Amino acid sequence: MSPIDTTHLLAPTPRPDVVMTRGEGSWLYDETGNRYLDFVQGWAVNCLGHSSDVIRKSLVHQADQLLNPSPAYYNRPQLDLAALLCEKSGLDRVFFCNSGAEANEGAIKLARKWGKQNRGGATEIITFTGAFHGRTLATMAATDKPGWDTLFAPGVDGFCRVEFGNLAAVKAAIGSQTVGIMLEPVQGEAGVVEPPQGFLASLRRLCDEHGLLLIFDEIQTGMSRTGPLFAYQSSTIAPDIMTLGKGLGGGVPIAAVLASEKASCFEPGDQGGTFNGNPLMCAVGLAVLHTLCDADFAHAASQASDHLRSTLENTAQKYSASVRGQGHLLAMVLPKPVASEVAARCFEAGLLINTPRPDVLRFMPSLTTSPSEIDDMIAILSPILDEALQ
Ligand SMILES: Cc1ncc(COP(=O)(O)O)c(C=O)c1O
Known about the structure:
Blueprint: E1 20-24, E2 27-30, E3 35-38, H1 41-44, H2 53-65, H3 76-89, E4 93-97, H4 100-118, E5 124-128, H5 137-142, H6 148-151, E6 159-162, H7 167-173, E7 178-183, H8 199-210, E8 213-217, E9 241-244, E10 255-259, H9 279-293, H10 295-317, E11 322-326, E12 329-333, H11 339-348, E13 351-352, E14 354-357, E15 360-363, H12 371-389
Parallel strand pairs: 3-13, 5-6, 5-7, 7-8, 8-9
Antiparallel strand pairs: 1-2, 2-3, 4-10, 9-10, 11-12, 12-15, 14-15
This protein binds pyridoxal-5'-phosphate.
Pyridoxal-5'-phosphate binds at residues 43, 99-101, 104, 132-134, 184, 188-189, 217, 219-220, 245.
């Protein structure tokens, strides 16, 4: 029996028998003093590492001033964060919320309302195989996970799924009821899957031709995770609506829907929430965003991600494995479906990595992870891969 009493948690997911108590940079510590080199970082959330000074200071400062005046009033961090997000993204308006799924739910509602006003009541959104958009009822319907269509039936209608990367299939799916196309610029939960070259630009063209909204879910890829501040910025096009979460708060719960002026059709009462845009979380988001936009920070992060990639590639070639992804969102595709076994052995050896697919190891460390920590990670991983793959 587990030495940890979990009886008061509702259906806990399978977790190892440890209780995490402290984090510092790339390291996580448990109750018994074991430490773990963390290449999961709260599922790509802690972009500045565990307990970063930037976040701690902004929390303490803002907590001294104002926690939550209610969404009925403006607050300064909310206004400042919205303005900076718009400046950096080129989009025009922001709606703040508390989780990625809630942001996507907001994006779906925004698109449906826009369809009502601009496309004769069209509501259908084209989504993709391998997509992950969250765990609310609507975002589950937009997600492609086996069994999710019936798990909490009846589900939410209004989504049409086509093969990721297949432009002909997208074209064929567009009809009078279509209002938009929604996708992750790099699919995270599918195992870090990039679209074919030019796919995002082709979708932009299709949306322009047919008068549809292009919606990017940048909850995992945004906030410099793939290199540029937003993943779409490595292409030449921009979405009409973008959602952010995870790295936006660097570990605290804040998410956002960003929209172009054209798509910003919410009216008072359409969308809201008690905690939405509260100054405590917005102050953290603002501090994180300022940090990511600092040229020295961005340069160091880019060098670290190059080092991570080349180190993983050197290791992968020994095992006929391959590496894919961008920036600090990378995956090693193994020649055998032993990823869970490898991750479990890594955990025992003090390394946290994640396995979105049976043959895929995913690496999403803090953007502050040093080259020597990357070398430490490989030193733990290599002998485990030796055993699992040779
Ligand atoms: C691309 C993407 N969208 C949405 C979500 C859901 O975000 P949250 O877990 O904050 O609701 C996730 C979470 O992993 C994600 O990766």
